[in-house]
Design brief:
38% of the residues lie in helices and 26% in strands. It is α/β, with parallel strands linked by helices. Helix 1 packs parallel to helix 3, helix 1 packs parallel to helix 8 and helix 8 packs antiparallel against helix 9. It binds flavin-adenine dinucleotide.
Length: 375
């Protein structure tokens, strides 16, 4: 076996497909046995769309909804700006399954319901031990377990780690859905921010992050949090007034290490996606970074270079954008900065487009990786 990949999200499935297409023998271990919803804003940036197309997946064919305009709401202020690039939204349930199906059809041995509990360096290569079943041995190991750390390989806390995330799908009324059509809406509220956008099947996804101590002040529960945010922001209240929540409970995630970037390491392990670089969610570029890491890890490995060389390159290409986005994210959850940003965006709506451009993968890094994936 050439490679064992831990995790079948965008990073793991993207990487496994790239390797298998170029002749490597790959086993991918994914802990979920079937399709699931995942905490994510479900915004697909143009970089993510480019990488998906390279893998043979056209976002609109999967049901993705085009997004053209960013709408920012804070208290009673609502400002709009056209996005400076093509974007989509698509549920992770659909996206991740499509990526895993693509990996299988490229020849990857995809094993579902297979949670890795130990990843160990051996004399010659690596061993991945699942909770149930036999270990998998391979020449190289790729850690793509995303938001979840494998035992013994915990990531550092990052630069902003006091946020809790929630996600809920909604069925909006016809009028609300029409108003949201082709828009991603960002709402700033006391202690956090949220994104709301239409996804496939006529649904809308709401994903938010809130500072832990504010959540407690809000009463500690999702219900009291949503009630308080609606009271604070009439725009969101109107959006959700007759909407139906699709699940009894939201998905939740604690301790996200925003701002973490894995620098070079000589342990020989390739770390991808959120295991390597965690960009704050408002940028909507995490999936793109995951797919980018997959492309450059594949070309580094197949080119005979080391994990350390790959890791340093990924850090070089992402570090500044991740840092800028994290500093902004730290400001976005604080009241004074929220007032300033909302006022500035009101005066100069193009500021929002500039922020959207400055918080994503640099175009030079994208172009270079795309050239490599076609070589
Ligand atoms: C609140 C929030 C909102 C976000 N919104 C957006 C957005 O709108 N747009 C965007 O582009 N990005 C967004 N992101 C970021 C995005 O979700 C991640 O960057 C992206 O999912 C990273 O992909 P990945 O493949 O590295 O990890 P993941 O998507 O987390 O996938 C990891 C996979 O590994 C599996 N796994 C985990 N542990 C194990 C194990 N031990 N053994 C086997 N399998 C395992 C998991 O089941 C999962 O399938 C958001 C993040 C957060 C926290």
């Amino acid at each position: 076996m050439d490679a064992v990949v831990v995790g079948g999200g965008p990073a793991g499935a993207g990487l496994a497909t790239q390797l298998a297409r170029r002749g490597a023998a790959v086993t991918l271990l994914e802990r979920e046995a079937g399709p699931v919803d995942k905490v994510c804003g479900e915004f697909l940036s143009h970089e993510a769309a480019r990488y998906l197309r390279e893998l043979g997946l056209e976002p609109t064919t999967l049901g993705a909804v085009p997004i053209h305009t960013l709408r920012l709401a804070h208290r009673r202020v609502v400002v709009e700006a056209r996005l400076p690039f093509e974007a989509f939204s698509l549920s992770r349930r659909v996206l991740d399954e499509a990526l895993l199906a693509r990996a299988s059809s490229a020849g990857v041995d995809v094993r579902r319901g297979c949670k890795v509990v130990e990843l160990a360096r051996l004399d010659e290569g690596w061993g991945a031990r699942p909770a149930v079943g036999d270990s998998v041995f391979a020449r190289a190991a790729f850690l793509a377990s995303g938001k979840h750390d494998v035992r013994g390989l915990r990531r550092p806390r990052g630069l902003q780690s006091d946020l809790v995330a929630f996600k809920m799908h909604w069925r909006l009324t016809h009028r609300q859905a029409r108003e949201l059509n082709r828009h991603v809406e960002i709402v700033l509220f006391d202690g956090g921010y949220l994104g709301l956008e239409p996804i496939e099947a006529g649904l809308a996804n709401l994903c938010l992050v809130v500072r832990r101590h504010r959540l407690q002040a809000y009463g500690g529960s999702w219900e009291s949090l949503i009630v308080s945010i609606r009271a604070e922001c009439p725009h969101l209240d109107a959006r959700l007034s007759e909407a139906e929540a699709c699940w009894a409970k939201p998905l939740a995630l604690a301790t996200i290490p925003y701002g973490h970037v894995q620098l070079g390491d000589d342990d020989g392990l390739y770390r991808l996606g959120d295991q390597a670089a965690v960009i704050p969610s408002f940028s909507g570029d995490g999936v793109a970074i995951a797919l980018h890491s997959a492309v450059i890890a594949a070309s580094t490995f197949l080119g005979g270079s080391t994990a350390d060389v790959y890791q340093r390159r990924l850090a070089r290409e992402t570090r500044r954008r991740v840092l800028f986005a994290t500093l902004l994210s730290q400001a976005l959850v604080r009241a004074p900065a929220q007032w300033i940003l909302a006022a500035a965006a009101r005066g100069f709506p193009r500021l929002m487009s500039a922020i959207a451009t400055g918080t994503r993968l640099p175009t030079s890094a994208l172009a270079r990786a795309l050239r490599e994936s076609r070589a």
